[in-house]
Amino acid sequence: MNPSREVIVRATDLGYAYRPDRFAVRGLHFQLYRGEVFGLLGRNGAGKTTTVRLLTTLLPPTEGGGTLFGKDLRQCGRAERARIGVVLQSESLDFVSVENNLRLYAFLWGVPREVAKSRAEEMLELFELGPVRARKPWALSGGERRRFQVARELMHEMELLFLDEPTVGLDALTRSRILDYLADRARRGLTIVFTTHILHEADRLCDRIGVMRDGRLLTVGSPAEIKRTYGRLRTVEAGFERELSGPEANDLERLLALEGESFSIVERRGDLLVFRAGNAESLVADVVRWAQSRGIELERIAVSEATLEDAFVKLVSEAPAPAVPLAGEEP
Amino acid sequence: MSLPPVLRLVVRNFRASIDPITLLVMFGQPAFLIVILGTMFNQLIPSVGASGSYVAFLVPGMIASQMITGAVLAGRIFWLDRRWSMVEQIFSGPFRRAEYLAALLLTTLLFSLVGVGIMALVALPLAGLPRISGVELGVILATIALGATFFGGLLIALGGRIRSANLYFTIQSLLQYFLIFISTVYYPVTATTPEVLRVVVYANPLTYAANTVRDAFTHSFGPSDLTAGSVLAVLAALTFLLAILSFRRLEFGPVQ
Description:
- The complex is a heterodimer.
- In chain A, the strands form 3 sheets. Chain A has a 7-stranded mixed sheet with strand order 6-7-8-3-9-10-15, with helices on both faces.
- By secondary structure, chain A is α/β, with parallel strands linked by helices.
- Chain A contains 11 helices and 15 strands.
- In chain A, helix 3 (98-108) packs across helix 4 (113-126) and helix 3 (98-108) packs parallel to helix 5.
- The radius of gyration of chain A is 24 Å and the shape is elongated.
- In chain A, 36% of the residues lie in helices and 28% in strands.
- Helix content of chain B is 77%, strand content 0%.
- Chain B has helices at 5-16, 20-44, 54-83, 86-91, 97-127, 134-161, 165-181, 195-203, 205-217, 223-248.
- In chain B, helix 2 (20-44) runs antiparallel to helix 3 (54-83), helix 3 packs across helix 9 and helix 5 packs across helix 6 (134-161).
- The interface between A and B is medium-sized, with 30 and 28 residues.
């Protein structure tokens, strides 16, 4: 991370306890830079929503501290909150139609009437809410309500946008459209904090990711860094000249096991064998050697990176680990 | 140039927080009572103290009770805002908690005044045009404002602590009916009123408000109205403080 970039949010041992002995989050230490998309990942109850509430000043820190736009979180007020947008995890709505909800929310934020009118049209189109503009929000489907929540927040200008699980319940196409739109806004300078359980979304959208468990931040880094550091299993795809027979495949498996490889064949698709392996390089060498020894031509072999899901599962399921700062992250 | 935050919130409260049917019931019910009770009991009760006819006695009481209607509506807005996470949404925006609270209380007051207007209009054909001086009108409005702050503050304080819709709306209904019926809105306290009831009625702030509004209608202000105003002012300040404390300790997250 370029150290010259402007820090928008800084958390320094930030913590919040509902009771003196019951911490929701503790020891959070990270920065967010202008124009980046930062993903917060973690299982249910990991502390993601509490972290969002702390950073949006809804909750005051009970230990440590931080800054929002350079101002102490405890001192932040209207001026700082006017520069942020928040899409809550829980649905929030007013008792008027979708279109009027958008315009009323813009009114609350002091957006001029004409701007609000044209922006509402833009959002209705972008989020495919035009056909339901006259409906009350509670009459919408789950996916429409979620789209409505995101659309409404984008009715006003902001520099920092918090999205707490914005794509829950959305179909793949809509998710993709929303992610594309958010990526475009980020390219134009909007800083985004994004919590999600859909890991490939985070992989696609986020510049950096923080993984939380039990109220603590286990690691912060780019998706590639996290996958490289924590992803145990990589995928090896071996394409042979022909489909292997059952005995041939068993023979290969036996050899790999004898060589002490930690692997599994996850898929057999025609002439293609797909492995998941801890030590992909060694597995590749053994497969090549086996093919040569059996006179079977190996037409192609490819290794792909571990997925973010692998890394995430390893991070959150293993025994407590110390926070590990990755590249670009201050200790 | 946009409105100040408090006024933007008040506009939002009026435009988006209460459905028309609720408003119709909330204002329609007391208006209906003025017409029905006023007409029916007027035939049975020849006169009530300084007011004269029963309907002339009832109208100021119903006007005073609009402070409760306003408070109930504002309490409902607040609770629904919690239920639908609008409190959290608004607090994460360019508003202070104090502004949201002020907007709720201002909404209470405005709803109360709308109620006063409706009651006055409905009563016009029954009781005629009351001859009230500017000072008396000022006293009526100040009394309504203090009472609305008291009841509004009380319901907002409760709404900030209760996480169950059933419990909140049950308490609110009980409070509403108890306060209205154990007061001098519908009937006077007389020499024959049982002592226990007399004590309870005079412990009810709505009684002070109803009596003061009634005295304004009958041009009979006295020292007791000054005492009533002072008591209402103290109580309003107290519940306002309770509402602030409730806001400070407000917990976010789901309410049922």
